[in-house]
Structures are given as C-alpha cells and as structure tokens.
UniProtKB/TrEMBL annotation:
Residues 34-53 bind DNA. Residues 11-71 form the HTH tetR-type domain. SUPFAM superfamilies: Homeodomain-like, Tetracyclin repressor-like, C-terminal domain. It comes from the Bacteria. This is TetR/AcrR family transcriptional regulator. GO terms for molecular function: DNA binding. Signal peptide: none annotated. The lineage of its organism: Bacteria, Bacillati, Actinomycetota, Actinomycetes, Propionibacteriales.
Amino acid sequence: MLAQDQPVEWTPKAHDLLEAAAALFYERGIAAVGVDTVAQHAGVTKKTLYDRFGSKERLVAEYLRSREEQRRAALVAALDEARDPVERVAAVYDGTRAWAAAQPVWRGCPVVNAHAEINTAGHPAYPLVAEQKRWTRDLFSGLLVYAGVPAEHRDALATQLLALLEGAQVVVGMGADPHGFLRARDAGVALVRSVLA
C-alpha cells in the first residue's frame, strides 16, 4: 500500500483509476462514491487502487490536483491569446468558460463542490481546496498590476473579480444562466475600466 507521503507511480492503471474517480466524484459527489465503485469503473481491483494511491483520501487529492492542472492550462491558453491588459483580466473568464465547456457535464467548480464535503484540515485534499481560490485571486491581482490599477484598489477589485468568477461557475453549473461566464466577464471588465477611468 502506498504511504501518504510517497509519490504516486503513474502506471496506466493509476491513470485509469484517476479518470474513473474524477468522473464519479464530480458527477455523484466524493462521499457518495466508494473505492469499490471506482475500482469497478476503472476495471481494476480494490487492491490495485490501494497499491497505487494508498487511500481514497489520496485519490481525492489527486483528482482535485488533476482538475486544477486542467483549469490552469485552460487559463494559460486564454491568457496567451490576450494582449490588451484589460482583456487579460477577461481571459480568466474566457479560459474558465472554455474549460467548463470541455467537461462532459458542468456541475460547477470541482474544488467548491469538494469543499462542501472536505472540511477537516487533516484531509490530504484540504490544502488544495484552500490554495486554489488563493491562486486565482492572486492571478487577478497580478493582472490588475499589469493593467495599471492603483494599489489602493487592487485587493478589493481582485476579490470582486474572483466573486464574479465563482458566481458564474455556480449559475452555469445549476443551469440558471448559460451565459453566466460572459455576463461575469463583462461585469469584471466594466469594474476594471471604471477604476482605470
């Protein structure tokens, strides 16, 4: 069995397990999916799951890490396309929208969904949950520096931009507004331009 501090050996079966777990955890919820179900969907034994990941908690952490890597790659791709400083802020919304659209089904931010079920600091995924939102807020903050937003406005504005992004993920995920990312993008751009005016 893999110890919690050992790196995962990314064999083909480990990848199969992660893929199965990611789909199941996101669609059904973490607590609702047992290791038997994950192993069955991956076509491996429960022993193989424990040999590769050591525990369900570690598998959850790897699922969230994998989703976050995908999200950041989508954001980087969108940011690489944007040259104008304010459009780079907008690109965070565009990248998130593209990432959400690439999912077989969008049920909102996987990290927020996981946070509803993971509320103990001792869980291996807990640091990932907290760090993801900090990272996104810091990304907005850095983009505001690049856009020339005065220092006295940056903290509040970065938090507002993050709140718009989080809200968009919720309303799109719940089916309340399929254009939520575009509306949040427009509101975020308007906020930035109002500070720069």
